[in-house]
Amino acid sequence: MKHFINGIIKENPVLVLMLGLCPVLAVSGTVRDAAGMGVAVIFVLTCSNIVISLIKNWVPSQLRIPIFIIVISTFVTINDYTMQAYFPELYKVLGVFVPLIVVNCIILARAEAFASRHSVSASILDGLGIGIGFTLAVVAMGAIREALGSGTILGKTIIGESFRENSVLLMILPPGAFLVIAFLMAGMNKWVKK
């Protein structure tokens, strides 16, 4: 369980390790988009960790990274096609960021640093922990940005009409993503140090 909890708190890929920030900043405009990306990352990370942990003893060291990328890209392709078939609106919004999970440094770093050196059960817990940590960070950003930027969460009004007319437009724009992630990182670092 230590591996699972570390991925959420002490080794949170977004708020502590600062990995994979490009998709986090790009898709955290709403809770729906952020959650969709989070689920995609959890799926790819957990499945690739399992396979890499299973094949680690048969992979020659000089071919390690290319084989890891093939494994990761297989699960990204499954995820991409599934999302395109069953969630077309979400697929359109996330756009290029779904296929780019292949080169997301979180996924490759966990494959290289963890799954290739640990058992399948530990790799599953690590994949789930890191994936959930990523998802919690991106959904928190999406909730803050959507609430302050448009006064809604998942399209439902949570703040009165008077606020919605004077909402903080900056929050749904790219600079809002940078501000929100800065405050979340500062809060997480202060909490982890305690």
List keywords for this structure.
mainly alpha, two-stranded antiparallel ribbon, 2 strands
Q: Can you characterise this structure?
A:
The structure is a single chain. The protein has helices at 2-8, 21-27, 31-55, 64-86, 88-94, 105-115, 120-150, 161-165, 174-193, and strands at 152-153, 156-157. By secondary structure, it is mostly helical. The protein has one domain (2-138). It has a two-stranded antiparallel sheet. The longest helix has 31 residues, at 120-150. The mean pLDDT is 89.
Number of domains: 1
Please bin the fraction of helical residues.
over 70%
Q: How many beta strands in the DSSP annotation?
A: 2
Most strands sheet: 2 strands, antiparallel
Number of helical elements: 9
> Low-confidence parts lasting 5 or more residues at pLDDT below 50?
none
CA radius of gyration? 18 Å
Task: Write down the overall mean pLDDT.
Answer: 89
Categorize the overall geometry. globular
SSE order, one letter for each helix or strand: HHHHHHHEEHH
Helix/sheet category: mainly alpha
Sheet with most strands: strand arrangement: 1-2
